[in-house]
Amino acid sequence: MIYRFRRDWKVIAMTLAVVLLTVYVIYDVYFVGGDMADRIVTPIVFAVIWFLALRTPRYFYIEKDRIVVQFFIGYKLLDDIQSVRPILKGELKGTIKNWGNGGLMGYTGYFESFYIGKYQMYAVNKNELALVTLNNGAQYVINYPQELLK
After folding, report:
1. pTM of structure
2. Is the CA virtual torsion 122, 61, 11, 20 positive or negative?
3. In 3-state terms, what secondary structure has residue 31?
4. Cβ within 8 Å of residue 77, ≥6 positions away
5. Which of 18, 21, 53, 67 is a good FRET partner for 10, with 20 to 30 A between their CA atoms?
6. In angstroms, rounded to a whole number, what is the distance separating the alpha carbons of residues 139 and 87?
7. Residues 5-25: what's their mean pLDDT?
8. What is the DSSP letter of 120?
């Protein structure tokens, strides 16, 4: 079954700020005046930022034995699932982001927490989170319907 989650206000605010900044910088570089280096580097930087943003979840397809995280570009298949449990309050405190996106259209990337250890996160809000552990030891924090965890 397909589950969609509402983005939290921090994600919406960050996304709007980046969109406005993108429009402003492109206007400034191309129409107000920028040298050739600015005209080459600016689109590359924004393309990387927007590619990472488009790798955030659109929806989650959840079945008994597998979960598909559908992105705007591509998907991530989680199968061979060992366990799914809710994230307890405080487990994400002091989390270190090793690589990823911490709010532009969602939360994605590689993180490390004192309580959980190393994990990958694919979420659009921090309200309905679950830890999915695979049989190979890989851990994922994703948005997950709380009614399925009970």
Report:
1. 0.82
2. positive
3. helix
4. 66, 67, 68, 69
5. 67
6. 12
7. 87
8. E
DSSP state at residue 137: S
* The pair of three-digit structure tokens given for residue 130, joined into one six-digit string: 């679950």
Residue 48: pLDDT band with limits 50, 70, 90: confident
What separation in angstroms does the CA of 25 have from each of 20, 45, 125? 9, 11, 28
Q: What confidence tens digit (pLDDT) does each residue in 59-100 have?
A: 999 998 899 999 988 999 999 899 999 998 888 888 888 887
Report how far residue 45's alpha carbon sits from residue 133's, in angstroms, rounded to the nearest whole number. 34
Alpha-carbon dihedral 140, 126, 89, 146, rounded to 10 degrees: -80
Neighbours of 123 (CB within 10 A): 26
